[in-house]
UniProtKB/TrEMBL annotation:
Protein name as it appears in the record: Uracil-DNA glycosylase
Gene for this chain: ung
Active site location: D65
Residues of the Uracil-DNA glycosylase-like domain: 49-211
Enzyme class: hydrolase
Keyword terms of this UniProt record: Cytoplasm, DNA damage, DNA repair, Hydrolase
Originating species: Mesonia phycicola
Family annotation (PANTHER family): URACIL-DNA GLYCOSYLASE
One Gene Ontology term of the molecular function aspect: uracil DNA N-glycosylase activity
Family per record: Belongs to the uracil-DNA glycosylase (UDG) superfamily. UNG family.
GO cellular component: cytoplasm
Annotated PROSITE patterns: U_DNA_GLYCOSYLASE
Catalysed reactions, as listed in the record: Hydrolyzes single-stranded DNA or mismatched double-stranded DNA and polynucleotides, releasing free uracil
Amino acid sequence: MKVNIHNSWKKQLNDEFDKPYFKELTSFVKTEYAEHTCYPQGKDIFAAFDYCHFNDLKVVILGQDPYHGVDQANGLCFSVKDHIKTPPSLINIFKEIEQDLNITVPENGNLERWAKQGVLLLNATLTVRAHEAGSHQKKGWEKFTDKVISTISKNKSNVVFLLWGGFAKKKIKLIDQEKHLVLTSGHPSPLSANRGYWFGNKHFSKTNDYLKSKTLVPVEW
């Protein structure tokens, strides 16, 4: 696995790539991709960092691990490729945006357009074996992505962190809330959303209001 991410991130994370845990992780991922079908494609493992450069970053959305269905994952959390049916959680995200900002639900679930505006769509685990949810968890990815979050917290200011669901909320401890805005809610999955823990959180208007208050360009959701 070649760690080929944008130079703006290399400057922030370069020390991580030489650590023993990351070398073990690299070996694990290489073996998994050689012996099994895994997602996303190798070239897309670090796509979140390629689309959203460190200097441009203003929002972080945290997912757990990539979609494990055929050809779904594109390296951005909650996002799928253009021709793939929009998954239930993303449908609920779009519904909340529609209610919050009166924006029409898009035709596809590819969120590259968000990432290009400075939204880091970060999964805590960046790879997964096909049809086996969580199969690459606790192999080192979480240590790496925790470092990503803490690095953003330390070296950036006025970033909005959107933490949805119990897993994401645990990352609050990595974030300096004196420097950044943290918004939490239930997860957009149908199980959580249908119990009233997602809809009405207005995270998308709150994010833009905060960005504008810091004289930053709001996100076109």
